[in-house]
Amino acid sequence: MASLGRASALIGAGTLVSRVTGLIRNVVLVGALGVVPSAAFDAFGVANQLPNSIFALISSGLLAGVIVPQIVKAVRTHDDRGSAFVSKLLTLGVVTLAAVTAVAMVAAPLLVLIYGGRFSADGRALALALAYWCLPQLFFYGLYALVGEVLNARRIFGPYAWSPIINNIVSIAGFGAFIWLFGLRRSATGWTPEMIALLGGTATLGIVLQAVVLLLFWRRAGLTVRADFRWRGIGLGHIGRLAGWTFLMVVVGQVAGAVQANLVGSASGLGAANGAMQTAWLLFMLPFSVIVISLGTPYYTQLSEHVAEGRTDAVTADLSTLTRTIGVFMVGVLGAMVAAIVPLSAIFADHPDEAVALAWVLGAFLVALLPLSFQFGIQRTFYALGDTRTPFLYTVVQAVLVVLTSVVGFLVLPAPWLAVGIALGQSLANIVQFALAVALLRRKLGPLGLGGAARSVLRFLAAAVPATGAGWLAFELLGGAAGWPASDRLAGFLAAALIGLLTLCVYVLFLALLRAPELRTALQAVRRFLPGR
User: Fold this and answer.
1) HEC profile for 428-456?
2) Partner of 398 for a Cys bridge, out of 93, 381, 426, 433, CB 3.0 to 4.6 A?
3) Which residue in 404, 118, 103 sits closest to 255, CA to CA?
4) Element (H or E) spanning 18, and its range?
5) H-helix or E-strand containing 235?
6) How far, in Å, CA of 63 to CA of 68, rounded?
7) How far apart are CA 463 and CA 157, in angstroms?
8) What pTM does this model have?
9) Please, are residues 405 and 422 in contact by the beta-carbon 8 Å criterion?
């Protein structure tokens, strides 16, 4: 457990710095393109999201779901501790990534039409021009995920969490140079090749360096790796069957995401649209990335080891512990984000009205923050068990609901509220997906022993309600949405920090009053981040 705690602290610290610099990156990007409304930001959002979407799906499904358990098994059973196996996998992965990237470049006009078909003609043209600069990120995102998951499987967790900081630093410098040279550009018209090259080239250069830096840590994995095209005899048939389901899950997710992006694009220039949804999603994913990923990644390696040993009781115990640990953090963070939602949004807005519009989108996403957080452990348990078919099935249900709610929102909601409706529909779909995943895992393993964890989460929620109320009262006393907290970016940051800290302090106080045993574990985890610990 101490080893898991140190690994979680290392990942959490790196992810926190990465996400904070990522927020700064997006603040600078908003300074260059605006956010609500901004046809230019929407066009860049679509172009840059094409490789991002594929990376997010691959890293959470195909690579994490297939490679980590297989490498853990190879390390335990192969005489060379998995070196030949990893060589073949990496060779196959690099070849596949190169082919997919080449196909994506050729298909760029079609991809832009799928994701941004409801943009104006100028918006589609700008998105396509930027896509040619951004799509090469596919290869380097995939390389980053591939190498990173191999390091994770070897219990080398730090580099994968820390290397995105390089990408953010490069982006901050490049987007800052764009502001210095060209100023604020909200419109999709009047873009020169130099503007497009600086904006798109900056985004891609950061991803290239993020991937390359991981290679500097390769020797620590203790593997001798070389190009090896002899893919027969290493169980690729079995891996292919596992990967086949995750690939189909990628396709399903992409279809749902394309429908969302296309429909919300009809609001581009009129209100919150693609850029606003991506900014709200960035804020939504900040606590998920820092807390859930940092806690869950070491547990996933341990889950895979327990599965390899045939210890089902240890697997369910790991899942229960992970749920409690994630819950005590995420419930408090959810309360803090709800209380400070307008100041948080003001960090990325030029006017209080824009902050409120962005806050509504963020609030719609936050509805599913807890279910999505708890689902991480459920899904990783399926992956550790070598079952990628079941996650595909419940992802299909989620994707169908996403598409249906997006279409309904498009048909009945006015343009300024379309992004809110689509975000809320996704949250409802995620809640259904989580409930279905729990039911299916219980059917596979039998009793999961999560009753105690569920009672703990209810205790956390009981502490979070008064804490959130205290934070919201502080927000109103500071002037509310029409006052100081949303007046500009700096005020938004300071107000969000003050309100969030107050909310968390009250939350900790009520946890202590309720005698929540998880509070001690949480405080120990926090202390690991402190210098000298």
Assistant:
1) HHHHHHHHHHHHHHHHHHCCCCCHHHHHH
2) 433
3) 404
4) helix 2-33
5) none
6) 7
7) 33
8) 0.76
9) yes
